[in-house]
Write a structure and sequence with these properties.
The complex is a heterotrimer. By secondary structure, chain B is an all-alpha fold. Chain B is 71% helix and 1% strand. Classes of the chains: A mainly alpha, B mainly alpha, C alpha+beta.
Chain lengths: 158, 406, 248
């Protein structure tokens, strides 16, 4: 093709760019990409390997079986230990105790479930704090609820 | 018992994750830039492919403008990404079900077409410059010419064929590049303010508008600065195209709103207060009145009374309308990108208003800087290659060549 | 039971019993560590929210934040409160996602019905978020969980825009998309997601559709359930009982 040398060179250049791109692309694509779908399969294992923070009551049972039995027998049976305490991971790691377990006795914590709110299911036990304390002759205080109620078995008069 | 936690400026109820503006000013800027790319390219195509001779004086310039804006169009995206260092993942492992993966394919295809077309249009100039210069400059131009110096009529004829083919592919490519940006918004069912099949067409039409408007301004400024004559035929033609494109744009924009309002759907319940409160200024005042109504009237005068107008009046009308339409299109991008995010997907409220800061990473200064870089790129282009008139072969060379041939 | 065994904390138990994975032809990270197997072909997870039970205490939101280190002001799960009166009066709120419960504010209308609605990623079968991910960083596992690969995500935010439920956010520190994983690290070890574990009233339940005896599966099969925004056909794997028409 006379007078078409420049065309041929440009086509060759474009082709070379595409080849280089393909090589670079192969180099930078993770080996596990596309194994199960259009994603990096290794990420599934990475997601699974993330550390667990909350153990659930079953994990507390190992050391605190008596407490757990008391809790399971009362009206707070469905309340997990770590809700009022803290995640297990801040207390025990690899079967060794790494720190004290915090105890939250705050009135605020109790009210999160038991304060009377519009919209809360009617049959769930709930109170107006001042009215409730007024009946008992007590004043509002930061940890007033646990003065009468045992958090692990809160129902009175048993 | 719990103190009210105040989330700033949420009217009604927004989903808690919805109060953040994920797509910032940068995502407003990106479609603005690609719109100008597409619009400028179409003007160059009108000459190269459709033989509009009156656009010849700006045929090269419009291509250079398209190219300059194309080069900087990725910058706002890179600045916006949480991980710009992984940006190439989009072409290494594109997920073809994603409209955004279209970016890798469409952007690169169009960039390749544009690069090739620039090369063919300017090839003769590159060779002449290679011959004229000495030293490093000569080496650079020689490399740009791929070390072949064939400017025989037969070779140039091949270039012209290549240009025609590339332009023919380039028009749909430019439309797809900009249309996909509209599709990217229009195909999201989560957001009623975005989700309309009109979106890609609105983006395209407004892209054309902004591209032509940008050319009018740049052309007039460049001619004024270099002391050359502004061709009245060219300006008159650009005015007509600008008027056409803006009418299509504004009609579609209004059509979208009117349809929503007329359907009285759930979406309108949320969009109506959005338009009249949060977007009242940028939509009604800027986009519809300042940016559409005024230039519509100005261009109507310029187009219908063209033959009675003095050159200076025509140029002024043209310049002012172009400027207002550039603002209109920017406001439109803003109202789409930001407006759509103010509306919470709960349909019950609006998020905090978004006002970009001057100095933040994705703020006003960064946006202005990137926008200005487009002009810098155009300036550099013009330093390397002539953007208005093609270079002439020196007489002696011509004679020698003819002597050789005979 | 000796002191030694009682001392054995949960984490160790979890490590020695569950962590492994066998995913098709090549064993994953956990299997390499010599742990017992998890075969994702045996699971198809499903989530059930009973809005009529929810009391709005927000313990789930708090547990999720601690379990998954969710940054302040962002939510993998949250609770919404709907207070509805006659004549179309509706007040919806979710102060800080309900992480500290709700203020006992009095409204200027009489509330005739009300409900608390826990929200989280619906792990849709026809998910709009992975559809739009341009790089394949977001995907659905064989057991039906929608995840984000934080090492491939480019942080474009398209998935955040595409999710009609507002379940996703861009993490302010890692700058990648983040969302509920149904606590994938827990469920693959045989534990419940943190939010399900934390719920004191059983408003949240988690199950496996491939287990014929699963109570959640039975509920979905035999009782009236809804999904959120069904008109979008995202086909959520998260079902709701006791919803109101005001909930979107």
């Amino acid at each position: 093709m006379e007078h078409g040398k420049h065309l041929a060179r440009m086509i060759l250049l474009v082709f070379l760019v595409l080849v280089v791109f393909h090589i670079v692309r192969t180099l930078f694509t993770p080996s596990s990409f596309g194994r199960y779908g259009h994603y990096r399969a290794d990420n599934v294992a990475e997601q699974m390997a993330k550390p667990v923070a909350y153990g659930g009551s079953a994990s507390c049972e190992a050391c605190h079986s008596q407490r757990n039995a008391q809790l399971k027998g009362g009206s707070h049976a469905t309340v997990e230990c770590e809700i009022c305490h803290a995640p297990l991971s801040s207390h025990v790691v690899d079967s060794g105790k790494i720190g004290e377990m915090p105890i939250n006795r705050s009135t605020m914590l109790c009210l999160r479930c038991h304060e009377r709110w519009d919209g809360r299911p009617g049959k769930f036990p709930q109170i107006e704090l001042e009215e409730h304390l007024g009946k008992m002759g007590a004043a509002v205080g930061p940890e007033v609820c646990v003065g009468c109620h045992d958090s692990h078995d809160p129902k009175m008069g048993r | 018992m719990i103190p009210e936690i105040r989330v700033p400026e949420v009217v009604g109820f927004a989903f808690p994750n919805d109060i953040h503006i994920t797509w910032s000013l940068m995502i407003v800027l990106y479609p603005y830039l690609t719109g100008i790319v597409a619009g400028a390219f179409v003007i160059s195509a009108l000459y190269h492919l459709f033989g509009r001779e009156e656009l010849r004086p700006i045929s090269r310039f419009s291509m250079a403008t398209s190219f300059a804006f194309m080069v900087v169009a990725t910058l706002p995206l890179l600045n916006h990404l949480g991980h710009p260092e992984r940006a190439l993942n989009i072409i290494f492992t594109p997920n073809f079900s994603s409209a955004m993966a279209g970016f890798g394919i469409l952007y690169n295809t169009y960039l390749l077409i544009l690069l090739l077309e620039v090369w063919f249009v300017w090839r003769k100039d590159i060779i002449l410059l290679a011959r004229r210069n000495r030293g490093l400059k000569r080496k650079i131009y020689a490399a740009m010419a791929l070390w072949t110096y064939d400017i025989s009529p037969q070779a140039l004829e091949k270039d012209h064929s290549a240009i025609r083919v590339l332009t023919a592919i380039g028009i749909p490519a430019a439309c797809m590049l900009h249309g996909y940006v509209g599709f990217l918004f229009g195909a999201l069912k989560a957001n009623p303010w975005w989700s309309t099949p009109l979106m890609p067409i609105i983006f395209l039409a407004s892209g054309m508008t902004s591209g032509v408007a940008m050319l009018i301004i740049l052309y007039q400024v460049a001619m004024k600065v270099s002391g050359q004559k502004i061709e009245s035929e060219t300006i008159a033609s650009l005015n007509r195209w600008l008027w056409l494109f803006m009418i299509v744009t504004v009609s579609l924009e209004l059509l979208e709103i009117i349809t929503l309002a007329y359907e009285q759907s759930e979406a309108w319940e949320a969009i109506h207060p959005l338009l009249t409160t949060k977007l009242a200024f940028s939509f009604i005042s800027v986009q519809l009145i300042l940016g559409s109504l005024i230039p519509f009237i100005l261009l109507m005068i310029a187009v219908t009374m063209n033959r009675y107008l003095h050159d200076r009046v025509r140029n002024t009308l043209s310049f002012v309308s172009a400027l207002l339409l550039l603002i209109q299109v920017f406001a439109m991008r803003w109202n789409v990108v930001i407006g759509g995010q103010l509306l919470s997907k709960s349909f019950r409220g609006f998020r905090e208003t978004y006002s970009p800061q001057l100095f933040e990473k994705e703020g006003i200064l960064a946006a202005a800087g990137i926008f200005c870089l487009a002009f810098v790129a155009l300036f550099v282009f013009a330093k390397i290659l002539p953007v208005f008139k093609a270079l002439e072969e020196p007489r002696t060379v011509k004679l020698e060549a003819e002597a050789k041939r005979s | 039971m000796g002191k030694e065994t009682t001392r054995r904390g949960f984490l160790e138990a979890a490590a020695t019993t569950a962590l492994a994975i066998t995913l098709g032809r090549k064993a994953g990270l956990a299997a390499e560590a010599g742990l017992s197997e998890y075969n994702w072909e045996d699971y198809s997870y499903v989530y059930l929210v009973d809005a009529s039970k929810c009391i709005g205490c927000g313990m789930c939101v708090q547990a999720c934040q601690k379990e998954n280190r969710v940054p302040d002001g962002f939510f993998r799960t949250w609770v919404e409160r709907y207070r509805i009166g006659e004549g179309g009066r509706v007040e919806v709120d979710s102060p800080n996602g309900g992480i500290n419960g709700f203020p006992a504010t009095i409204l200027d209308f009489k509330v005739t019905k009300g409900l608390f609605v826990p929200k989280l990623c619906n792990h849709c079968k026809n998910t709009p978020c992975t559809q739009v991910c341009p790089v394949g960083a977001s995907y659905t596992t064989k057991d039906g969980v929608v995840l984000v690969d934080d090492k491939r995500c480019i942080g474009c935010g398209y998935c955040v825009q595409a999710c009609p439920y507002g379940s996703r956010y861009l993490h302010p520190v890692s700058h990648v998309a983040d969302k509920c994983t149904w606590c994938y690290h827990r469920i693959t070890r045989g534990l419940k997601p943190a939010c399900v574990m934390a719920c004191p009233v059983g408003a949240r339940a988690f199950g496996n559709m491939k287990n014929l005896q699963d109570p959640v599966r039975k509920t979905i099969a035999t009782q009236p359930v809804l999904v959120l925004q069904p008109e979008l056909l995202t086909r959520p794997n998260c079902y709701y009982k006791g919803l109101d028409k005001e909930v979107r």
